[in-house]
Automatic annotation (TrEMBL):
Keywords: Glycosyltransferase, Golgi apparatus, Manganese, Membrane, Signal-anchor, Transferase, Transmembrane, Transmembrane helix. Belongs to the glycosyltransferase 31 family. CDD domains: GLECT. The lineage of its organism: Eukaryota, Viridiplantae, Streptophyta, Embryophyta, Tracheophyta. Its main location: Golgi. Residues 194-405 form the Galectin domain. Pathway: Protein modification; protein glycosylation. It is a single-pass type II membrane protein. GO terms for biological process: carbohydrate derivative biosynthetic process. One of its GO terms (molecular function) is galactosyltransferase activity. InterPro entries: ConA-like_dom_sf, Galectin_CRD, Glyco_trans_31. This is Galectin domain-containing protein. The keyword Transmembrane helix applies. Residues 86-114 are annotated as: Disordered.
Length: 522
């Protein structure tokens, strides 16, 4: 007698086993394809380092260590983490403590000019493997380029006279180049790429007045609206930007936007006129402040120099409730003085001339349009008025004239010689021989002399750091300007708290500094 009911389960088990077998075959094929690459990586990490070993030099009181002793030691001496300090100048500079010092006869001091500055054992083999297979990613190509430029910049440091760089550096400002006012008309602004230079930045009380006319709205295609099938993706747009930029704050990248003021006359997604405020540093935008016609709070912590952050203006989607006749009669009866509240329309109109005044107050910027206060934007940490050395105006607007008044007449302290205080008090202690409780690595840009000096004077003077239980070091890459690198080298030699990384400083490569901190702390 046949058991017909048992046939389907057997066939299902049969098909399931075939399916699992097929998955196993595919997995083996995948592993076999990746196995050669795995072997290359293993051989790279376990290979002998005699071919690519860096001839390191002792710095200060520390001693060299054999690069073949351990993996950590070899990685620490890799190109991305290797320091480029001078033997003679870096007496107090930090060096990772060694556990197995060499004998006296094995220590052969060399000049930095004699040290071959190339990739370390592991990094060198990996980079050669990538180049051989032509499999460099965008980040790896960027790192390779930064490494080459960094080596070139370091070689040029010795050619720069340090005294001359301190006195005649382009970082130094000239007092006579700081006028109290600057003006420009529309044609001059267009010829200057929509940028007006403010030689010495701004100060509290400085004001910038812009006279212009917004363009009539034009159509723009928005893919997001097209997907939602709204009007074929076409919208009417009329907006412009007024930006204070830090032209001297960074090199080789877009200047930070210390203030980004963006009036959108036709509105945005809200379809209401909007004025947006924000800041941007190294391609990272902060939290925007949007004013859309609704008044902001009048609490003390929300005010900026006594002004509201956002004033009220008429909106076509909100109708103010009228006061009842009974309430109005009662207020007149008790004799309470009542001031009528004035509500103005949005101050910018397409095709109509406007006068916009941007004033720097004590706690923030204040924007007046047509003689009335419209918005205020508080200063944000990390930006100073001295840094605002450029005014950019772009977008749907015809600028007729610009006037900047009450500007500072003395140059701010861009010069390192005015910032660096060569005092024994701020010097860092050498690395201790005993284990430490905490290591702090501080990411720092090459030209941030004032910021590093501020850190030295504050929390780096804590008892824990002074007792060597906690160690803090700055990790700094090289600058495109040779005179900055010369001053940086002198700063590192004197204070002894800077680890110089031999590649050109770029924000996209900040991960290399992080890796350097990890290896140095290890």
């Amino acid at each position: 007698m046949k058991r017909t009911k048992s046939d389907p389960p057997n066939s299902r088990r049969f098909r399931l086993s075939h399916f699992l077998f097929g998955i196993g075959v595919l997995y083996l094929l995948f592993v076999s394809c990746k196995f050669p690459q795995f072997l290359r990586i293993v051989s790279t990490l376990s290979g002998d380092g005699s071919e690519d070993r860096l001839e390191g030099a002792a710095v200060g009181d520390s001693e060299d260590s054999d690069l073949s002793k351990s993996f950590v030691s070899s990685v620490y001496k890799d190109a991305f983490h290797r320091r480029l300090e001078d033997n003679r100048d870096q007496e107090g500079a930090p060096l990772r403590p060694n556990t197995e010092p060499k004998k006296e006869e094995e220590r052969l001091p060399e000049s930095p000019k004699q040290i071959p500055l190339r990739y370390g054992r592991i990094t060198g083999k990996i980079m050669r493997e990538y180049k051989r297979t032509n499999d460099l990613s965008v980040l790896e190509r960027m790192a390779d380029e930064a490494w080459i430029l960094g080596l070139k910049a370091w070689k040029e440091v010795d050619k720069v006279d340090e005294k001359g760089s301190m006195k005649n550096s382009v970082l130094d400002g000239k007092p006579e180049s700081c006028p109290s006012w600057v003006s420009m008309n529309g044609d001059e602004l267009i010829k200057g790429d929509s940028l007006m230079f403010l030689p010495c930045g701004l100060a509290a009380g400085s004001s910038i007045t812009v006279v212009g006319t917004p363009h009539h709205a034009h159509k723009e295609y928005v893919p997001q609206l097209a997907k939602m099938k709204r009007g074929g993706g076409l919208v009417l747009v009329s907006q412009f930007m007024v930006e204070l930029q830090g032209l001297k704050s960074v090199d080789g990248e877009d200047p930070p936007k210390i203030l980004h003021l963006n009036p959108r006359i036709r509105g945005d997604w809200s379809r209401q006129p909007v004025i947006e405020h924000n800041t941007c540093y190294r391609m990272h935008w902060g939290t925007s402040q949007r004013c859309d016609g609704l008044p902001s709070g009048d609490e003390e912590e929300m005010l900026v120099d006594g002004y509201r952050r956002c004033e009220k203006w008429l909106r076509n989607d909100i109708i103010d409730s009228k006061e009842s006749k009974t309430t109005s009669w009662f207020k007149r009866f008790i004799g309470r003085e009542q001031k009528p509240e004035m509500t103005w329309p949005f101050p910018l109109v397409e095709g109509r001339m406007f006068v916009l005044t941007l004033r720097a107050g004590v706690d923030g910027y204040h924007i007046n349009i047509g003689g009335r206060h419209v918005t205020s934007f508080p200063y944000r940490t990390g930006f100073t008025l001295e840094d605002a050395t450029g005014l950019a105006i772009k977008g749907d607007v015809d600028v007729h004239s610009i006037y900047a008044t009450s500007l500072p007449t003395s140059h701010p302290s861009f010069s390192p010689q005015r910032v660096l205080e060569m005092s024994e008090t701020w010097k860092a202690s050498p690395l201790p021989k005993h284990p430490i409780k905490l290591f702090i690595g501080v990411l720092s840009a090459s030209n941030h002399f004032a910021e590093r000096m501020a850190v030295r004077k504050t929390w780096m003077q804590s008892a824990a750091i002074k007792s060597s239980d906690v160690v803090a070091r700055f990790f700094v890459a090289l600058n495109p300007r040779a005179e900055v690198n010369a001053v940086l080298k002198k700063e590192a030699a004197y204070f002894g708290d800077i680890v110089i990384l031999p590649f050109m400083d770029r924000y996209e490569l900040v991960v290399l500094k992080t890796v350097g901190i990890s290896e140095f702390g290890g």
